[in-house]
């Protein structure tokens, strides 16, 4: 079977954003290779959930937003589900967008170290680029742009990991699950930034358009698993770079841009450029996919599913997310703080959306033979329970009720 990359790469582009890059950098800098197992778990959990979305879109020819509305039997239930999804995606993805724009700006600052450019200008430039891309209105163009950015990002982080010559035995020792002292929240962050709830909407909608004949289920599932697996590998390489170059160095590192500047004296200017380019590409890809996913989901639920990106409804929703995210990112809140806010939003949103997905994937009258098997339900329920626990933990910490 020929592998046709597309929607799975969009998912990888979305979850390897500034939040993931920052979380992986902090994990490696503070705990070495000890938390690689958390990334492996998160990657497998993402593959499980996105497999459901791929089957929903490529097989049943439904977006998740459409399926939720169609599966709700009572009008009141439709309004409740629609309201919850609308609020969750608009609030959650606007927070994500702020972190994406700020993270991309940090990447440019790392590349242009020593050049005085206001961060607000950099944020506006990235926002304009994202707005232009989502306004083009052609899925094939969006797909090519994002695949190109993912390849650039992946190459940058692969080369940066090779620069630092990691200890392979220490790397493999990190596959054994254990949480070092003070490492619980970092482990939660690694998992929470990899399993991105809006990707469930994005993947189903993109797969529906990629395989519009309803015959691409096998290809969609294979492409999804490989793309997400490679995305997880990129995350591991980011952690590897930080663990190999900064663990026990005593340097204060708060994000990937700090890592880029910190390793330059040892590994040369090229290393800083590679990490800066990777962070910029991560911010830009996520700045494009977050508004896309929101627009897909909400336009589907509002009756605009058939028109795709060409509809004014789609463009309006996507541009609104970019605009709100830009305003938030220009408030002066530190970029790392914005990224953490997005993680808290993820903690609230993920178990809700994952539960909705599981509900839809068991509606045989709607999906026919594309419904979940018992094994997929077991895996899915396990992921929902774990992410629910993580969401509660993140919210309690945000409220100051837990250390």
What does this structure look like?
It is a single chain. With 403 residues, the chain is mostly helical. Helix 3 (36-59) packs across helix 10, helix 4 (64-71) runs parallel beside helix 13 and helix 7 runs parallel beside helix 11. The longest helix has 37 residues, at 75-111. The chain has one domain: Amino acid/polyamine transporter I (Up-down Bundle), CATH 1.20.1740.10. Helices cover 77% and strands 0% of the residues. The protein starts with 6 loop residues before the first helix and ends in a 5-residue tail after the last helix.
Question: Kindly, what is the distance between the CA atoms of the first and last residues, rounded to a whole number of angstroms?
Answer: 50 Å
CATH superfamily: Amino acid/polyamine transporter I
Fraction of residues in helix = over 70%
What is the number of domains? 1
CATH topology: Amino acid/polyamine transporter I
Low-confidence stretches: none
Basic shape: globular
Give the class from helix and strand content and strand pairing. mainly alpha
Sheet with most strands: none
| Name of the top-level CATH class | Mainly Alpha
So, CATH architecture?
Up-down Bundle
| SSE run | HHHHHHHHHHHHHHHHH
Strand content: under 5%
């Amino acid at each position: 079977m020929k592998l046709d990359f597309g929607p799975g790469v969009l998912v990888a582009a979305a979850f390897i954003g500034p939040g993931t890059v920052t979380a992986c950098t902090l994990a490696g800098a503070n705990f070495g290779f000890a938390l690689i197992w958390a990334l492996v778990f998160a990657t497998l959990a993402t593959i499980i959930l996105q497999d459901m979305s791929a089957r929903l879109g490529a097989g049943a020819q439904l977006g998740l937003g459409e399926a939720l509305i169609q599966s709700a039997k009572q009008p009141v239930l439709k309004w409740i589900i629609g309201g919850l999804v609308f609020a969750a995606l608009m609030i959650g993805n606007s927070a994500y967008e702020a972190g994406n724009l700020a993270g991309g700006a940090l990447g440019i600052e790392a590349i242009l170290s020593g050049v005085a450019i206001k961060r607000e200008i950099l944020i506006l430039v990235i926002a304009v680029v994202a707005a232009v891309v989502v306004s083009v209105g052609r899925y094939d163009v969006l797909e090519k742009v994002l695949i190109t950015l993912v390849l650039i990002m992946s190459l940058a982080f692969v080369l940066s990991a090779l620069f630092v010559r990691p200890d392979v035995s220490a790397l493999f020792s990190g596959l054994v699950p254990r949480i070092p002292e003070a490492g619980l929240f970092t482990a939660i962050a690694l998992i929470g930034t990899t399993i991105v709830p809006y990707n469930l909407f994005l993947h189903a909608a993109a797969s529906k358009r990629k395989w519009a004949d309803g015959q691409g289920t096998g290809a969609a599932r294979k492409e999804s698993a490989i793309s997400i697996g490679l995305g997880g590998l990129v995350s591991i390489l980011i952690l590897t770079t930080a663990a190999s170059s900064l663990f026990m160095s005593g340097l204060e590192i708060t994000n990937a841009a700090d890592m880029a500047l910190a390793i330059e004296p040892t590994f040369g200017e090229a290393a800083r450029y590679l990490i800066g380019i990777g962070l910029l590409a991560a911010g830009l890809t996520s700045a494009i996919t977050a508004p896309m996913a929101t627009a897909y989901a909400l336009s589907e639920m509002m009756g605009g599913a058939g028109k795709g990106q060409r509809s004014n409804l789609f463009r309006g929703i996507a541009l609104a997310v970019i605009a709100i995210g830009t305003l938030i990112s220009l408030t002066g809140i530190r970029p790392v703080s914005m990224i953490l806010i997005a993680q808290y939003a993820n903690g609230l949103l993920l178990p809700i959306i994952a539960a909705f997905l599981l509900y839809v994937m068991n509606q045989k009258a709607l999906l026919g033979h594309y419904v979940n098997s018992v094994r997929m339900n077991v895996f899915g329920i396990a992921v929902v329970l774990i992410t629910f626990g993580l969401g509660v933990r993140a919210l309690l910490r945000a409220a100051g009720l837990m250390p």
